[in-house]
Design brief:
Structural class: alpha/beta
Number of domains: 1
CATH superfamily: Glutaredoxin
Strand order of the largest sheet: 5-4-3-6-7
Largest sheet: 5 strands, mixed
Strand content: 15-25%
Number of strands: 7
CATH architecture: 3-Layer(aba) Sandwich
CATH class: Alpha Beta
CATH topology: Glutaredoxin
Length: 171
């Protein structure tokens, strides 16, 4: 009899847990998988999808204007774009600043960002498993996620550049 009540109690607890803490509806992308789709409109009004970047090495930078490490990393991304853009590098900034389009446009101008910036929807954030900022994904010419970087340390930025150089050297 005790065993029966214990199993019922355990089952009830499992159901309550499942309802209280549902699993995310999106599977978070992993290294080696195809990059999840992106469909956004840049702050300059251009529609952007992953198809725009076929055949390019793509760096996706999830950032926010209020995030100090993001603010520090962006000049490095601007430099990378200038340095490797003609070799096949593309960068896409995805802002998590909600409802502040004018503020983001002013930020883009003040940081002299030389790549497209758009707003990251909740679905994109979920698909890419965003947990902290900045988060940078590097995607190969074939559309495969090769690495995910979190934080904006000098070591992280050097690792991003080394990976970009390696991927640009591949056919």
């Amino acid at each position: 009899m005790k065993s029966y009540h214990f199993r019922r109690l355990a089952l009830a607890a499992a159901i309550v847990s499942a309802l209280a803490f549902p699993l995310p509806s999106h599977a978070v992308v992993q290294k080696g998988q195809a990059a999840p789709p992106i469909k956004v409109v840049s702050t300059s009004g251009q529609p952007i999808t992953l198809n725009n970047y076929k055949g390019y090495v793509l760096v996706i930078d999830f950032f926010a204007t209020w995030c100090p490490p993001c603010r520090e990393a962006i000049p490095h991304l601007v430099t990378l774009n200038r340095k490797y853009g003609k070799q096949g590098l593309q960068i896409l900034g995805l802002s998590l600043d909600e409802g502040d389009e004018q503020g983001v446009k002013e930020f883009i101008a003040s940081k002299r960002i030389n790549y497209p910036v758009a707003f990251a929807s909740q679905d994109i954030q979920a698909d890419y498993g965003l947990r902290s900022l900045p988060t940078v994904y590097v995607i190969s010419r074939k559309g495969v996620v090769t690495e995910k970087f979190q934080g904006g340390s000098e070591e992280t930025l050097r690792s991003i550049e080394a990976l970009i150089k390696k991927l640009l050297a591949e056919p």
